Amino acid sequence: MDGEMQSGESSSLPILDLSYADNSSKRPALLEELHNALFNVGFLYIKDHGVSMETIMNLVSRLPALFNQGNSAKARLSKLNSPHFLGYSGFAEEMTLGEKDLREQFDLATELPVIWQDPTNHKKIGGPGDRDFTKLYWRLRGPNQWPCEDRVPGFRKAYLELAFTYPLTCNRPLIL
């Protein structure tokens, strides 16, 4: 893999080849690099992901309008309004290791139905694996908060086009 690094080494940006996910002999190396990138480096670049440059640029071209919305428009999309931890975080609103993060961001994810239930009702729902949908991590499933179409024309459509093309099957946010 292009970005191979030894454990703990963080002098270069890891480059992960997502096509390795489809190869059973290369998948373990991909997972090891992913773990290293996430836990030791904090950044990574993914190549061979299967998303066309046209689809990527269709979304990227809308990002300035997304971030250039007025503060009140962005505040209406605050993560504080979402039980699913999706939405807008303003400049220095989040903390990492006790320090304010000097950035603003939008967290968006795959649109999934809400299945989390208030734990006070102590219900277990049957189904595959008899999952307990009262567990807090099920709150990650839910709808995104979208900017008004007149403020950021075509953003939702461009994001969903990318999200449905993006070949990862996890429900983790795409941070913009």
Question: Which features does this protein show?
Answer:
176 residues; alpha+beta; 2 domains; three-stranded antiparallel sheet
How would you concisely characterize the structure shown here?
This protein has five helices and seven strands; from the N terminus they run E-H-E-H-H-H-E-E-E-E-H-E. The protein is of the alpha+beta class and 176 residues long.
How does this structure look, described?
- The strands form three sheets. The chain has a three-stranded antiparallel beta sheet with strand order 3-6-7, with no helix packed on it. It has a two-stranded parallel ribbon with strand order 1-2.
- It starts with 14 loop residues before the first strand and ends with a strand.
- Helix 2 runs antiparallel to helix 5.
- The protein folds into two domains: 1-49, no CATH class; 51-175, no CATH class.
- The longest helix is centred in the N-terminal third of the chain and has 15 residues, at 27-41.
- It has helices at residues 27-41, 53-60, 63-67, 71-75, 155-165; strands at 15-17, 45-47, 87-89, 95-96, 99-100, 105-108, 174-175.
- By secondary structure, the chain is α+β, with helices and mostly antiparallel strands.
- It has five helices and seven strands.
Topology:
Layout (H helix, E strand, L loop, with lengths): L14 E3 L9 H15 L3 E3 L5 H8 L2 H5 L3 H5 L11 E3 L5 E2 L2 E2 L4 E4 L46 H11 L8 E2 L1
Parallel strand pairs: 1-2
Antiparallel strand pairs: 3-6, 4-5, 6-7
Helix pairs in contact: 2-5
Helix content: 25-40%
> How many β-strand stretches?
7
Please, what is the average pLDDT?
A: 83
Q: Show unreliable segments.
A: 3-10, 167-173
Order of helices and strands: EHEHHHEEEEHE
Number of helix segments?
5
